[in-house]
Specification:
Helix content: 40-55%
Shape: elongated
Radius of gyration: 25 Å
Largest sheet: 4 strands, mixed
Order of helices and strands: HHEHEHEEHHEHEHEEH
Structural class: alpha/beta
Strand order of the largest sheet: 2-1-3-4
Protein name: Thioredoxin domain-containing protein
CATH superfamily of the largest domain: Glutaredoxin
CATH class of the largest domain: Alpha Beta
Keywords: Membrane, Transmembrane, Transmembrane helix
CATH architecture of the largest domain: 3-Layer(aba) Sandwich
CATH topology of the largest domain: Glutaredoxin
Number of strands: 8
Number of helices: 9
Length: 263
């Protein structure tokens, strides 16, 4: 009898705790709005929110709410409704002191207004259009994830090495070692971004096509890019650190860069 009572009491405590947890969850779920529904008060907040929620952001900077502003605003809003991608829109007045830091960072104060900037979820700028914009142009800003991963470090002034390899490609270790040794050089420390990408992934097909990589070779490749987005070379097979330094030297001297790049 006593044993049964203890079980009932213990179960009662467990049930009470569970009920409290459920009530607390429901309370906070109700009182705290979903992050996606939070309205940012500044462009900086909008950029942060877009990053945290994985959305593209269209930043529309303006001085006056004139005809150009209203037309661009309408086009962007229509595109947002029609797009299958998650998109945020934020309108920023250049007269607002709170917007000055972001406006200065992107050179908006010297640009014709209104102007819309497209930012990928990782913060890479994928497009900018002053005075007018079409839905087709906005659609072109929604680029593949690999492109945004490449653009971000390039826009930060870094060299980008894209390592294209998977379990089916040969010379994976050689390519990875060459890239690692290159980026570890003291004079390049902190200025090289290495990005791994699968050449067999359908999401990367557009990039593979752009660099004209022969997919039938089944060899790992290193794509060498320099700011603002120039291909300094595409190197397949047994790539070495010296190969990459050769591409860098060619670009630095204006000598035409490496294979297929800097033309």
């Amino acid at each position: 009898m006593n044993k049964s009572l203890r079980i009932i009491k213990n179960n009662g405590i467990a049930i009470s705790v569970a009920v409290l947890l459920v009530i607390s969850f429901l309370f906070f779920s109700y009182t705290l709005p979903a992050q996606e529904n939070i309205a940012p008060k500044t462009a900086a907040e909008a950029i942060s929110l877009a990053r945290n929620t994985g959305r593209y952001l269209f930043l529309l900077f303006y001085k006056d709410k004139d005809g150009s502003f209203n037309t661009m605003k309408g086009t962007i809003e229509e595109f947002e409704k029609e797009s299958s991608k998650k998109i945020m829109i934020y309108r920023a007045s250049t007269a607002n002191e709170q917007e000055k830091d972001v406006a200065t960072k992107y050179g908006i104060l010297k640009a014709p207004l209104p102007i819309v900037l497209s930012l990928a979820p990782n913060g890479a700028v994928t497009g900018g259009f002053p005075k007018e914009v079409s839905k087709q142009q906005l659609a072109g800003c929604l680029v593949p994830e690999l492109t945004t991963r490449i653009l971000k470090p390039l826009q930060e002034g870094k060299i980008v090495l894209v390592l294209l390899q998977n379990k089916n490609t040969k010379y994976n270790m050689e390519s990875a070692k060459a890239a690692g040794d290159f980026s570890d050089e003291p004079q390049l420390k902190g200025y090289v971004e290495i990005i791994m990408a699968d050449p067999g992934d359908a999401k990367n097909k557009e990039f593979i096509s752009q660099i004209k990589l022969d997919e039938n070779k089944n060899e790992a490749a290193v794509v060498f890019l320099v700011p603002p987005g120039t291909i300094a070379g595409v190197f397949s097979g047994k790539v070495t650190k010296e190969t990459l330094f050769g591409a860098l030297a060619a670009c630095s001297s204006g000598g035409g860069c490496g294979s297929g790049g800097c033309k």
